[in-house]
Design goal:
Radius of gyration: 19 Å
Distance between the termini: 61 Å
Number of helices: 3
Shape: globular
Low-confidence stretches: 9-16
Strand content: 5-15%
Helix content: 25-40%
Number of domains: 1
Amino acid sequence: MLVSIGIIALVTAILLPAMNVAREQAQRTTCLSNLRQLTMAWQLYAQEHNGRLVSSDTFDRTCWVNGSSCCSSLQTGALWPYVKNTNIYMCPEDQWNDPRSYAINGYLNGEYGDQAAKTLSEIRQPTSGVFCFIEEFDPRGMLQHSFVVSQYPDTLWIDLPAPWHKDAVMVSWCDGHAAAWRWADSRSSQLRTRGVSQPNNPDLRQLQAWLGIGPTPPGVIQ
C-alpha cells in the first residue's frame, strides 16, 4: 500500500509541471485568439466608417468600449456589434474583477492628440510594426482610456502591460497578427506601479518602437 502511494506521488510530481505548462499554453492560445478577433473587429469598424478609426478611449458610446467598470461598458461600446461575446474581451488568466483585459494603443485615435492617427491611411507603415491591442494592468482597478507609452528617449512606464502570462504579454498589431511577446528584461514582468522609470529597459524601447510615433530607439525590431 505504501509503495503504491509512493508511486502515485512520484508520478504526480513528474506530471504536474507538464500539466501546468500545457494549461498556460492553452490560456495563451485563447488570449491570442481574443486579440485577433478584437483586431479584426477594429479593422472592420474602420472599413465601414470610411477608414476612420474607432476611438481607443473609453469615455462614451463612440469609443470601442463605453467605460470600464461593468459588462454594459462592453455592450454599449462601438465594437460590440462586431464582437458580441464578453469572453473575448477577457484574458482567461486575468486575476482582476474587470470586464476586460485589453486596451488599444493610444496612438490609434486616442490620447496622443494631434500626433494620433485618425484613419487607417494615417497609420505609420508598415502596419505590422504598430501595435493595436495589448493586455493592460491597472493597479488602481480602473483600466480607463487608451494604452499610453512614453516616447523614446523617455524611460518612463506610463501604462503597464499585464503580468498574467509571467514571462510574456499578449499583443496584436494593426495588420491583424498577434503574438506572445517575451520579456527581454526581468524588470518588465515585475511592473506593478505606474510611472516607474527603467533606464535601458529593452522591452520599453521595443514598445516605443511599436507605438507608431516618436523617434525609433536603437536595437529594436521594426
